[in-house]
């Protein structure tokens, strides 16, 4: 049996072949299938909707795009596709690719990212924690509604967990919430949210 290494793609090749396909993202040249399921998309949509209501109510000059890629400046062949992202409208004018493609290159444009955990949970709990902190994204939510993450991330026994990461001096301080807990957001202090509210039926 022979081992076939994964095909390595450049950022440009990924954009040309998969840029408009929400199923894939690129990490260090490797194509990653995000395996979105119906419940996964329902959770992401519920989060996006609740955030949009807060943006509207607080009159923030932010937006929640339907699709978006993040191209970390330090990673050549990486294009991250967050499940939910909040962008600063004013900062969008400084984005070099935005007018032609929904690609963000500057961390200063991003206010918040939320990832809904699927089977590739290692990316959400490890790689993306580092990438998003390096980009200085103020808040990162890891929504593990099925309790898929490793024990070192969500504890034992595994259970649905919402991890809110708040950037402090370039490093994320993490606070975990379980079912029944009221989640606190620094960006949206008036947000009334529990993990129970966004669990799929």
TrEMBL record:
GO terms for molecular function: endonuclease activity. PANTHER family: SLL1072 PROTEIN, SLR1083 PROTEIN. This is Uma2 family endonuclease. It comes from Anabaena azotica FACHB-119. InterPro entries: Nuclease_put_TT1808 (IPR012296), Restrct_endonuc-II-like (IPR011335), Uma2 (IPR008538). Residues 11-194 form the Putative restriction endonuclease domain. It comes from the Bacteria. Keywords: Endonuclease, Hydrolase, Nuclease.
């Amino acid at each position: 049996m022979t081992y076939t290494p994964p095909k390595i793609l450049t950022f440009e090749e990924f954009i040309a072949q998969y840029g408009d396909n929400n199923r894939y993202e690129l990490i260090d040249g490797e194509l990653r299938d995000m395996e979105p399921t119906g419940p996964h998309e329902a959770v992401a949509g519920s989060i996006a909707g609740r955030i949009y209501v807060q943006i509207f109510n607080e009159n923030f000059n932010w937006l929640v795009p339907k699709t978006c890629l993040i191209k970390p400046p330090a990673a050549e062949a990486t294009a991250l596709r967050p499940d939910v992202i909040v962008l600063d409208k004013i900062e969008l004018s400084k984005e070099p690719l935005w007018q032609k493609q929904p690609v963000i290159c500057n961390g200063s444009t991003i206010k918040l990212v939320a990832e809904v955990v699927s089977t590739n949970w290692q990316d959400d709990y490890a790689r993306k924690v580092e990438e998003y902190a390096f980009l200085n994204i103020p808040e990162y939510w890891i929504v593990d509604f099925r309790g898929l993450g490793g024990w070192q991330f969500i504890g034992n026994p595994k259970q649905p967990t919402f991890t809110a990461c708040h950037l402090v001096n370039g490093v994320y301080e993490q606070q975990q919430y379980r079912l029944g807990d009221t989640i606190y957001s620094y960006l949206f202090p008036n947000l009334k949210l529990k993990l129970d509210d966004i669990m799929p039926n």
